[in-house]
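Hey,

Quick one before I head out. I ran the complex with pyridoxal-5'-phosphate overnight. Inputs first:
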Amino acid sequence: MIGDDFAELKLFITGPILLREEVRKAGLLPEFGHRDAENPKRFEPIMRNLKTIAGNPEGYSPVIFNGSGTNVLEASIRSLVADSDKVLNVSVGAFGDLYHKLAVVNGKNAVQLKFPYGQAISLEKLEEALKEHKPNVVTFTHNETSTGVINDVVAVCEMIRAHGAAPIIDAVSIFGGAPTFINECRPLMYCTSTQKSLGLPAGFGIGFVCEEALQKAESVANRGYTTDIIAQVGKAKINQTLTTPNGTLANQMCVQLDYIVNDETVAGRFKRHEDMRTIAHKWAETMDGYELFAQEGFRSPSLTTFKTPSHMSIDKLKEVKELMRGHGYLFDPGYGKINKELEEQGESPIFRVGHMADIQPEMVEEYLDVLGGVLKVFK
Ligand SMILES: *Cc1c(COP(=O)(O)O)cnc(C)c1O
């Protein structure tokens, strides 16, 4: 039968993620009409719980976009960067680069500030760039999934505002795993999606949009249709989506967000992510030749990156991946483009351990135990 050979792997990659049994079962709940009275039974609690997970930021509306995280990032560019604006895309890795690409391919006047892989945004360098370019809008990544760096969003936003610009934040891999600090940061938009720390399949992007952003969008030409935050917020305010949502995912999201808020609790979930980070860091100490890759003090609670010893290579990490598959796990051999660049510079590659969403601390311990055994084969 179709599906008989689909492997039941424990995903330790950085999205999509392992789904809880209850979330998988919620995929069997009834389909519904998105303009019918059945719709708010799902989307009213979804919107309420999204706000709770975000820390109830004053004056922000959650919007659910069809597509994935990238669709929301693109909507933020299309709706919030005017033709007369300059946008500064600050990048600490592949996803920061993606924001710059989205600005460029949408014809915006975009400049980029790049930091070396593994480094967080340096406030001094950011200030220099703000003084040099005088941007109107600045994009940056809360949690850089390609390098395992978490930026100090509050300090970065404060600096951006101090120079008269408005921040937009890509928080795709962190929402649901750590505080957003939206209230302190006051970004135009805070963008995320379902398939990372929230513990759901991919299919929706989520954006938190404020009044300032809606006013700004009024002055932006050619916002598109599905990328127009004004049209999107119009529907979101009545707990609907602009276009037909994935009903299966909406059912799963309704169940999962209720679990996060009312069962696990938001504080409990954030604490569990910190605990998993501690486990990953402790394991690194036991692994001869392996080092934590991300800058100290800026290490993500949703994933950890490891710098391998000089005898490791991209090809060997591919072998590790297959050996881990034999143990029932999907191993993450690092972000392809970054490892290629590292190898070209004569450096050993990095790999990632995703410890986000509903992975439990004891599962991370088990996984790292097996991984340690596999890595010791390579000398
Ligand atoms: C995964 C990810 C994206 C891309 O999101 P998609 O849902 O794959 O479109 C963007 N930014 C960050 C930080 C991510 O982790």
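The pocket of pyridoxal-5'-phosphate is lined by residues 15, 68-70, 95, 141, 145, 170, 172-173, 193, 196, 202 (CB under 6 Å).

Talk tomorrow,
K.
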